[in-house]
Amino acid sequence: MQWAILLAGGSGTRFWPLSSPSRPKQLLPLAGPRSSAEDAVDRLAGFIPAERILVVSGGSLADRLRDRLALPRESFLIEPRAASTGPALVWATLEAARRDPHATVVSMHADWIVRDPAAFVASAATALETAIRHRRLVTVGIVPSRPETGFGYIVPGERLDSAARAVGRFVEKPDGARALDLMAEGALWNSGLFAWRAEDLRREVMAHTPEIAPYLPLLDAEDVAGFFRGVRDVSIDVGVFERSDSVAVVAGDFAWDDIGTWEALARVRTRDRRGNVTHGAVTLVDCSDCIVWNDGPPMVLSGVHDLVVVHANERTLVLDRARAPDLKRTLDALPADVRELG
User: Fold this and answer.
1) pTM higher than 0.85, yes or no?
2) Would you tell me which of 108, 166, 171, 307 could form a disulfide with 157, CB atoms 3.0–4.6 Å apart?
3) What is the pLDDT of residue 44?
4) Is there a contact between 147 and 168 (Cβ–Cβ < 8 Å)?
5) What is the mean pLDDT of residues 72-79?
6) Same domain, yes or no, for 150 and 267?
């Protein structure tokens, strides 16, 4: 049977000061009235039933996710510690296989914005069919709309069938010039939407992932705490996909964005005629290309351009829009009593 794994962990730094460890990006209404985690579950309706959706998260978010998501209690898998996406997805996949020995899995993140749910489901179904047919791990690639430097890219290799190709190589976060070259080569964005048969993921982890493989018997014995004590942090991309020669890519025909920075709100929210995006009580006078989020009293901006201005959680952030991707560097420079949110 088909299962879905929803990765819903997060540190809460990408949209500081609105986000926090207890309310990270996937629980925020960044693109509309609902959170991206709620949208992710709704997107699967009619494709994968609620009892076969597994949500992986840390303990600090578990209660909030249970409150928000209309899923059975047994759908929530709480990591003993954050160890990146490799251990999380291996654990969730083997848990699906424990409940269903013939499990096939589609995995995704809870913080994406997807504008066409039907096309998303069609692409996910194609990825699952490819995983079954070719017994490969499958990634869904998105045709790039711009030379994005914050995403990973996939260069397709030989054709496997009408829908799928082998992966030639992965390229992680190229600079602008290299991104343009990759687009010219027909490279795709690596969306992070994956599919596999449970037994095939286990096979590839055993062959390629020493950070995880020695600890699989602990999962077989249902010793989740021991598994997480032993494994080393590694992403599924680095630990498995980039090392394996049994990976396929299918093209995803849907609008997708992982809204990784404040600047990305200009892509997912409506802009005014001067390119501004606002939320809350905001008045702009002779401003252009600003992103303003205000959870407080009325805010006025006048005569400024290309700024990100955020007031939330009793903090105010003002930065040049071009520096939005470097927010973590700004946070690292802050005193702890300013950076840390309640």
Assistant:
1) yes
2) 166
3) 96
4) no
5) 96
6) no
Q: Last residue of some domain: 230, 257, 284?
A: 257
List, for residues 96-108, the tens digit of each pLDDT value: 999 999 999 999 9
At 279, list the tokens: 């939320």
- Looking from the CA of 82 toward its CB, the CA atoms found within 13 Å total 12
92 and 235 both lie in a single domain: yes
Q: What share of the chain is helix, strand, coil (3-state, %, to 5)?
A: 35, 30, 35
CATH of the domain at 104: 3.90.550.10
Task: State whether the Cα torsion 144-148-151-153 is positive or negative.
Answer: positive
Question: For residue 55, what are its two tokens?
Answer: 């949500």
Q: What residue spans of 135-197 are helical by DSSP H?
A: 176-184
Assess contact for 217 and 206: CB atoms under 8 A: no
Q: Taking every pair of C-alpha atoms in the chain, what is the biggest distance, in angstroms?
A: 64
Q: Is 327 exposed, middle or buried (0-12, 13-18, 19+ CB in 10 A)?
A: buried
Q: Do 30 and 36 meet the contact criterion of CB atoms below 8 Å apart? A: yes
Separation CA 158–CA 123 (nearest Å): 20
161 shares its domain with 307: no
The whole-number pLDDT of residue 21 equals 82
Nearest-5° angle of CA 93, CA 99, CA 104? 45
Q: Write out the two tokens for 83.
A: 């160890």
The dihedral over CA atoms of 254, 255, 258, 263, expressed in degrees to the nearest 10, equals 170
E strand segments, 198-263: 247-252, 256-257
Range of the domain at 272: 262-339
Query: Which tens digit of pLDDT belongs to each residue from 52-67?
Result: 999 999 988 889 999 9
The answer to whether residues 114 and 57 belong to one domain is yes
Q: Among the three residues 211, 234, 257, which one is the final residue of a domain in this structure?
A: 257
Query: Which residue in 190, 192, 213, 218 sits closest to 202, CA to CA?
Result: 213
Same domain assignment for residues 231 and 292: no
| Neighbouring C-alpha atoms within 13 Å toward the C-beta of 81 | 11
Picking from 281, 274, 277, 242, the residue whose alpha carbon sits closest to that of residue 261 is: 277
Residue 110: name the closest of 73, 68, 147 by CA: 68
